[in-house]
Amino acid sequence: MKNLSLFTDFYELSMMNAYFTKNINPKAKFEMFFRKTPFKNGYIILAGIHTLINILKNLHFRKEEIEYLESLEYFDQKIFRILKDHFLNIKISSIEEGRIVFPHEPILIIEGNLIELLLIEGLVLNITINFESLIATKTARIKEAGATNLAEFGLRRAQGINGALSASKAAYIGGADFTSNVLAGYKYNIPVTGTMAHSWVMSFKSEEEAFWEYAKIYPNNVSLLIDTYDTLNSGLKNAIKVFKTLKRKGHKNFSVRIDSGDLEYLSKEVRKILNENGLFEVKIIISNELDEDIIMYLNSIHAPIDCWGVGTNLVTAKGEPNLSGVYKMISIQQNGKFIPKMKISNNVDKATLPSQKGVVRIYSNAQMIFDLIFLKEEKEKIKEMLNLKKKFTIFHPMQDNIFKEIKTYESFEFLIHTVFENSKICQNSKSSLAHIRKRVQSDLKKIDHTYKRLINPHIYKVSIKNLKKLKEQLTKENKIR
């Protein structure tokens, strides 16, 4: 992983320098959370945690980077003696990657020296969690629309090399079955797939010759692109000739791909003609600017499609250019004690929740029913209350007039765990990409379908209890200031 110590906004370095000049560098705690779900979705799939930790564990300023900062003639030169070869001394707690999360919940808590926590804000928000969570969530929506066998085809349309790799990885976490990105397949052990391009067909004297030459090389995995000239009158007819001959010779595993035209009409016609020729086993793959809306429609009219190739609209997260993740201070150490901090805003949705917090997920009939955000020091009391199945009242984290009395529930699960401490990744936080992907599928089975609807999903309850008192207290104190 490249060293990315300079991947930060200039004002972070300006503040770091100012704190250093004033000899201010207390311990502090920051948290990341999402303000809203993307695509008006009912949930967010958390991704990018492992990528971030692997970047942060080796982050330091090298000699040439120090020289560049010195050349700006803006900073106190003494700060560079401290920064040179300094590795971060931070503690990270988070919800597990691959879990379903919701707005206002702390998904990542980082504790360390204030100067260090400022330095890494850009890395936390840009490189990993916001983008990977966005793409994983988009992919889950596409799967929910009915893309049963989903191939991510976005390499050539993604935003640069890092965007392509991150998108392929996040799409696999979110439920994609394959990628066309060979480098992503190599790096992350994702199954790779692909058919042929129109250029293959066009490079031969005839479409039929192109198909035959391809089939000779891959007789047991023949996937033919049939829309280069005329899907029904040329491409399909030539493909059928090839498939019938290969089938008589004992070969199998055939498919056709359609990349243009009326996908409803063409898929139905292609299926009908294939069946009339006894080629029931031939799969139909479609691509061409697909998204969840198109896929949901094609499934609603029972278009006979076996595999979906989705590229541009997946890896660029059509409909939502970015995710709403923010990174805010929640407490700062004064006289050896952490003092809770809270942002008061003219916009209610931009206010923050103070102090270090935990999240507990409540279940009934093996289904998620709500999440409770609580103060870290309350954990044992919360655990005792839930074990005793006590009734209690929960409040909306941002709107105090919205509340609900909780009377019945069955089980609960604490979601936040330490993942990085003493410059090492915690053993219990090491997960393979396949394991993270399974975590997503497990959580999706535990949430009611009304929260997974693509249109107007039900809003999942994220709530607070005693945290409400601290929030009200700090709101009052800040207004007096």
UniProtKB/TrEMBL annotation:
Superkingdom of origin organism: Bacteria
NCBIfam families: NAPRTase_put, PRK09243.1-2, PRK12484.1
E.C. designation(s): 6.3.4.21
The species this protein was found in: Borrelia hermsii
CDD domains (UniProt xref): NAPRTase_A
Name of the featured protein: Nicotinate phosphoribosyltransferase
An example Gene Ontology molecular-function term: nicotinate phosphoribosyltransferase activity
GO biological process: NAD+ biosynthetic process via the salvage pathway
